[in-house]
Write a structure and sequence with these properties.
There is one protein chain. The chain is mainly α. It has 9 helices and 2 strands.
């Protein structure tokens, strides 16, 4: 974690590298980096929210490439993989839940041709399974909006874990 004052003082490349694990969308990273210096954490998060709304379809698809399936632990030593493992650490994944998540992930990917994305932090595996089943009923346009909202939530949670007041 880095303080806001230190984040403001980083060179552009270092600041961008710090933000990419939160959300690897060039426009989002660039807008936050170029918005420095921030007088407060509230100003930083306002810029991050604004830069994340709306996402283009291409930005959504690019960001989803880095997200593991829900219920599967991210592999690798990248900062993003570590964040994903941390976010899913509280899920209660017994064999039945693991099986149902795997089935739901496959059904979602067949329907929408992308990985199911949900903010896992603060949610139980039962709640995630319920949301997955509900979202399988969405039309593609509605699901695009839901995915974009989930991605924004994840990015802001991760940003809060990277830059402190």
């Amino acid at each position: 974690m880095i303080g806001l004052r230190d984040f403001n003082a980083l060179d552009e490349a270092a600041a961008a590298a710090l933000l990419r694990p939160c959300l690897d969308v060039d426009r989002w990273v660039t807008e936050i980096v170029q918005g420095r210096p921030y007088a407060s954490a509230e100003d930083l998060f306002a810029t991050a929210r604004q830069a994340a709304d709306p996402f283009t379809g291409a930005e959504l698809e690019a960001a989803l490439v880095h997200h593991p399936r829900i219920g599967e632990r991210a592999n690798g030593g990248s900062a993003e993989a570590a964040l994903s493992r941390s976010e899913q650490a509280s899920l209660d994944l017994d064999d039945d839940v693991q099986r149902r998540l795997a089935e739901g992930n496959r059904a979602y990917e067949q329907r929408f041709q992308r990985v199911f994305l949900i903010r896992a932090a603060g949610r139980s595996s039962v709640e995630i399974l319920d949301k997955l089943q509900t979202r399988l009923k969405n039309d593609p346009d509605t699901e695009d909006e839901v995915v974009a909202d989930q991605l924004r939530q994840i990015a802001l949670i991760r940003l809060a874990g990277v830059v402190s007041k």
